[in-house]
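Section 5.1 Outputs to date
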Amino acid sequence: MLEIPHLYHLAIAAEWDPAATADYTTSTVGRTLEDEGFIHLSLARQVAWVAQQFYVDSDVVLLEIDPAKVTARVQFEEAPGTDDAFPHLYGPVPRAAIVAASPVPRGADGAHDFTGLLPDPI
């Protein structure tokens, strides 16, 4: 069986409630699991690209998700306009699967700075 590394999701900081206990159901900016049919996730190497494409004007929280603790299917699918397959979760993220929620600072250039928040590339 293929082992999936930790997965990541960017949450809008103003919408993230660390005290919530319900499953997480935001798919992407302005869209829910119900709207989209799945929750957009990323591998560590994809997070900065996602932030640059979709979250440039938003303060975000990086959610680290343990795939062993999700109960729905994770499927890798190619994103339109890319040559990369992104993980999609076809169900909610159980709160117990969110092992870290880290506010993402901005660098001097205003871009999101993931230094120290993601594992080093292999």
